Amino acid sequence: MIRCCIVVKKIMKKLEKLNLNILKNKKWYHQRFDGCPLFISFIANAEVRKEKRKPKGTEADVRVCFFESGSGDWYLDMKDVRRGANAIVKLAKKDPNISKKLLRAWKKDEDKFQKFYAIEFPKVNLNELDDNKLLSLWKKQLFLGLNRFTSSSVIDHFALGTDEMIDGMLKKELKGKFKSESEFTRVFSIATAPVHQSFINLAEIDLLKILLGKSKETLKQYQNRYYWTKNNYFIAQNLSIKHFQDEIKAWKKSNKDLNEELRRIEQTPVLNKKLKLELFKEYKFSRLLKTLLKVSEDFTYWQDERKRATYHNIDIGTKVLTEIGRRVGYSLLELKNANGYEIETIIKKGSPTRKELRYRNKQNVFIWIERGFYPATGDEMNKIKNIVLGKKKMSDVQDFRGLSASTGKAIGRVKIVRSATEIRKVKQGDILVAVMTRPDYVMAMKKAAAIVTNEGGITSHAAIVSRELGIPCIIGTKIATEVLKDGDLVEVNANHGWVRKLIKNK
């Protein structure tokens, strides 16, 4: 364990100064979610780390995240994204099994982390640990988490950097074979559909089986397995039995054929695979295109497993940090504004201070590069924000386009969701608009007539869930949350990939 701690300490340190020129003249990819520096740092620290398992070029040179009141605005340098995507494409040209090999490369560390979460940690009584053992436990979580999540940059760069490439390859290879754009969109949707069940769907399947009397599992046993499924990068939610009882009540009130609903959810990935095989028989795609679609398939599964592990990590981390905070006199909220590697200096030296962490809580930015991390607040943070964001001016745009992730058309009122705390404002038939969606948005997504996002690719959460729900979805518009306002009446045409304002809400 000591050796592991030394390795962790060498990997990432706080930088006293940073040349902000490294942030200039970049095109940024923006994601938004509920988050805090502490839990985001697990991913950020891992993504900028170079290691032998990562194909050269797939690591991130820089990650930037602005935090305010429990929300995180995450920025990826598109140069990193394109370089990483191109690195995987280059390997895919030589080896059609590249995605399987990459998954195997991380399997041992993924299993170690899962063993820690499911077997080792539940046996630990935090109150009985002395201070040194408690610190060692935190360091172990850091070490296991870092090794488990270093695949993140490989996954994200491919997912975000190949959407337009795959779209272009499909259009080129299918040129002249369709009478309309909507026919192509349907083929695109089939070709890029996931063939694995997400952990959210598995939880829904198991709950429906309990409701329909098709499972011997009790609701208490179910709760023990799935209490963490509404976690996010800011909060760990220990879902109660009552929460799941309320979900069962909602199913009963839905007026849906629940047996048919269970069958639909269970069979969706099976049907996707069948349709995809039929598509491959009907059209003779190139070897590279089929390989990239297979990589996308595997990475969608890998991405979902990473998300599951992230939620587990937040569950464990919240419990350990709560105990650490109790002993050193810091609140959990204060500790959430630290980078994971600052917890040791907080315990040993009281640095950063509670005052500094409370100040960070108002607004702060973290920058991660391979040699360390750099936090900033106040005027310096504003300077960094101006460098990254520039001074955007949005004209009175009436319509815009994106990538069709799920076909169909819908007309409805816009509801912009910027955080999981806002999902309740989405009513049946609304158009859900977000920078990107997360698993904790699913309740709102089920009510929406259509989904529109600024960002996201063919393996994004919005793309996958919209296909499962069978509702129109347009991703990657870049500007939806800036152009639209709550209450705008819009038409979403996912057959052709455009959104049009019908009535502007003043």
Number of domains: 3
Please tally the helical runs, counting DSSP H or I stretches of 4 or more residues. 20
Major sheet: 8 strands, mixed
- Approximate strand percentage: 5-15%
Question: What is the global morphology?
Answer: globular
Tell me, rounded to a whole number, the average pLDDT: 91
Distance between the termini: 60 Å
Rg, Å, rounded: 23 Å
Structural class: alpha+beta
- Portion in helices: 40-55%
Stretches where pLDDT is under 50 for at least 5 consecutive residues are 1-9
Biggest sheet, spatial arrangement of strands:
6-13-12-8-9-10-11-7
How would you characterize the overall build of this protein?
- The chain is about 50% helix and about 15% strand.
- With about 500 residues, the chain is of the alpha+beta class.
- The chain folds into three domains: about 250 residues, no CATH class; about 80 residues, no CATH class; about 100 residues, Phosphohistidine domain (Glucose Oxidase, domain 1, 3-Layer(bba) Sandwich), CATH 3.50.30.10.
- The strands form two sheets. Strands 6-13-12-8-9-10-11-7 form an eight-stranded mixed sheet.
- A hairpin with a 2-residue loop joins strand 2 and strand 3.
- Helix 1 packs across helix 5, helix 5 runs antiparallel to helix 13 and helix 9 packs antiparallel against helix 12.
- The radius of gyration is 23 Å and the shape is globular.
- It starts with a helix and ends with a strand.
Summarize it.
This protein is an alpha+beta fold and 506 residues long. It has 20 helices and 13 strands.
